[in-house]
Amino acid sequence: MKSGSLWRLSARLRAIFAPFQMLIVTGTYWGDEGKGKIVDLLSAMYQYAIRFSGGAGAGHTLVTPGGQKFIGHLIPCGIARRVRCVLGRGVFSDLKRFCTELDVAKGVFGENLPPIWVDKYSPVWTQWHELLEKWLEYAMGKKRVQTTGKAIGPLAGLRILRAGIEVRHLYGDPRLLRQRLTGLYVALKPCFDEMVRLGIIRKKEVWGPSKVERELLEHAPRIERYVTDTASGLFKAFCHRARLLFEAAQAPGLDIDLGTWPYVSAGHSVAAGAPLGTGMPLRAFARAVVLMVMKALPTRVGAGPFPSEIWDRKKCEQFALDHPELFKDTPDRIKFLRVKRALINAGRATAKDWAQYFQVLGYELGATTGRGRSVGWMDIMWLHYVIRINGPRWFALTRFDMLSGLKYVPVVVGYKLDGKRLQPGDMPDTDDLYRVEPIIENWKCWDEDITGISDWKALPYSAKQFIWKLEKLVGVRILLIGTGPARHQIIVRSSAAKKKVQIAA
Ligand code: GDP
After folding, report:
1. Which of 203, 222, 241 is the last residue of a domain?
2. pLDDT band, residue 503 (cuts 50/70/90)
3. Among 20, 414, 462, 486, which lies 20 to 30 A Cα-Cα from 437?
4. Which residues are catalytic?
5. Looking at residue 3, what is its pLDDT?
6. Is 347 helix (H, G, I), strand (E, B) or coil?
């Protein structure tokens, strides 16, 4: 892309976002919507990129203009724009993974990274949290959550039980650190003993307090220069009119309170998590705008309901494991996609064909776990729900290019439960969500490949109709449309920034 076009893209974004001192970017479904790319793009308009929840279980991918991939698990994606990166108080600190990520970031962005802040009150991961997660997943049997294994749940849970340590303890009185670690060990030991007895782990896998302490103190000196009271720093920055971008981890479907509990992550992934997870006063958010990132075809990994899911979750995971060659740029992949697309357009595709087509086309592998993601149809009912709980001004729709070359795509426009159609905005509980019958409509797609298009006018008419129809149904404007993974492969609809949408009757 010519630098002139990139400059124009930035100028339009600047004009749109200039009135908003604060921006909150959240996902829409169950994560992996492409928030990394959107945050990377919009960080240029802000001076701070702030994570306010989650831990190393999150994974945001961005592709630099030089084509390098960076997956941020803890460090916000604003790093590519050299803005100050903040791991707020609501983020769970995994010191070891943070150090590894610093090394990866240096490899991608150079030795001289932008300033980074880690909150001194953030709860700290230990090996015991990971063992406890293993234990909980074992104990829950068939009802296990199938987490990413990064022990975010145990960290959050034990914080509520007031057990464990915060980052600041690593730099304070050593006796206090030892006391707190010993207390945690004593509290968890009966679980570990039982795990050893049942053969889930071996005895020597359970570290004693001194080993855990040694491990933590090994990383502490490297991190010390980043540690600060981020809430105080952010508030001062806000008062000095600094522009702040808040980046949610995961997505509303995985929010601890508003998601599909118990199949959720352990923090707040909705916009309301931003004040809580940073210590910023609610009043400051009068100057904020919420942008939700939605992918054209939602995906889910792990356990939990997914009403618009196309095919079998386990089989999707296994399919990706059995066919790694299809998730790399190989001739096999191209052939596979051609054959499946032909089946789809001939009206002969099964659910399996559709799901595998989108899974391969979208490289749907978890950024943290490498598990194959299960794909679903766009879900208008779910969109109504997440709009209600997040209050977005706009959507960024990513991966719109994935619908190119199809005659039509099914979209879930309603749910029926026990034979009755639900009202938009209603959301059944987790158990009922497994039972809802999706009401499906086929929406027209287009022949042309729209990959890389950055001008709304250049979109095929059917693609524009698709966007208009979606906006009308959900009542929220789509400001950004992703047409490929790279930073510049995006359409900015300045007209959508201004006009309100007419909601369909
Ligand atoms: P995140 O956690 O929400 O950032 O999502 P992921 O890390 O799973 O990223 C989603 C993937 O989609 C990344 O590989 C992105 O480069 C890619 N991506 C983002 N936007 C688009 C888009 O508009 N089209 C295509 N084809 N890929 C995209």
Report:
1. 222
2. low
3. 462
4. 32, 60
5. 64
6. coil
Query: pLDDT (tens digit, 9 = 90+) per residue, 33-42?
Result: 998 889 989 9
Within a domain: 1: no
- Using DSSP's 3-state secondary structure scheme, residue 80 falls into helix
The preferred substitution site among 37, 77, 492 for testing ligand 1, maximizing ligand atoms within 8 Å of CB, is: 37
* pTM for this predicted structure: 0.93
How close is the Cα of 303 to the center of ligand 1, in Å?
Answer: 22
- Among residues 268, 295, 322, the one where a domain terminates is 295
CA of 36 to the centre of ligand 1 (A): 7
CA angle 318-323-328, nearest 5°? 125
The closest-lying atom of ligand 1 relative to the alpha carbon of residue 486 is 16
Q: Is residue 436 part of a domain?
A: yes
Same domain, 401 and 413: yes
Atom of ligand 1 at shortest distance to CA of 250?
2
Query: Residues 357, 460: one domain?
Result: no
- Three-state SS at 327: helix
466 and 361: one domain?
no
User: Does some domain include residue 6?
Assistant: no
Residue 37, strand partner residues: none
Residue 35 near ligand 1, beta carbon < 6 Å = yes
Nearest-atom index, ligand 1, CA of 489: 23
From 61, 64, 365, 459, give the residue whose CB has the most ligand 1 atoms within 8 Å, as the site to mutate: 61
